[in-house]
Amino acid sequence: MQSAALFQVENGQLIGARQVPSPNYNQRPEHSEIQLIVIHNISLPPSQFGGGYIEQFFQNQLDWSLHPYFQTIQGIQVSAHLLILRTGEVLQFVNFKDRAWHAGRSSYLGKVECNDYSIGIELEGSDDTDFEDIQYQILADVVASLQKAYPKTDQHLAGHSDIAPGRKTDPGPHFQWQYFREALAQKKSKAK
Ligand SMILES: [Zn+2]
């Protein structure tokens, strides 16, 4: 028996995600096509989970006085299309048709400025902590839906560290690519 997909892309929105609009985006360049999915990790403060600070940060609403670390990122305007919390909840900050500000200076297969043509997914996590199993399962569901909606991303998944080597380390050594790829293959074969 086929079970209904958890997520669906409609009009650049991920149905099944909580919509939390961020002002930190702009238009993708004309004629650019979505052809890459970039996986990140983030936690605020670093290696601490919960608290809602990541969504406040992406909405430019973080109170910088709450933690010394926050002062080091004060005024930085960034975003990602999606964030998957430790609980598995998915938040969408930027419509997929728009350009989120997650990759920075980057290149993939010789093509620079990955923000122009990628979708950025943050996992609430850090370089020194295992991710939750539910995050892998939800990420696999989400990526399966995205690859269905944007077929050019089908073979193009990268970590932030792959597209900005020497500058970025996330999703980090605790992200199990093999485990994730197997979960994704399973979701995709079930969806057929
Ligand atoms: Zn990153």
UniProtKB/TrEMBL annotation:
GO molecular function: metal ion binding; N-acetylmuramoyl-L-alanine amidase activity
SMART domains, alphabetized: Ami_2 (SM00644)
N-acetylmuramoyl-L-alanine amidase domain location: 22-172
CDD domains in alphabetical order: PGRP
Signal sequence segment: none
The entry's keywords: Cell wall biogenesis/degradation, Cytoplasm, Hydrolase, Metal-binding, Zinc
Keyword Metal-binding: yes
Alphabetical list of InterPro entries matching this protein: Amidase/PGRP_sf, Amidase_domain, NAMLAA_amidase_2
Example of a GO biological process term: peptidoglycan turnover
Family per record: Belongs to the N-acetylmuramoyl-L-alanine amidase 2 family.
Stated name of the protein: 1,6-anhydro-N-acetylmuramyl-L-alanine amidase AmpD
Organism of derivation: Acinetobacter rongchengensis
Phylogenetic classification of the source organism: Bacteria, Pseudomonadati, Pseudomonadota, Gammaproteobacteria, Moraxellales
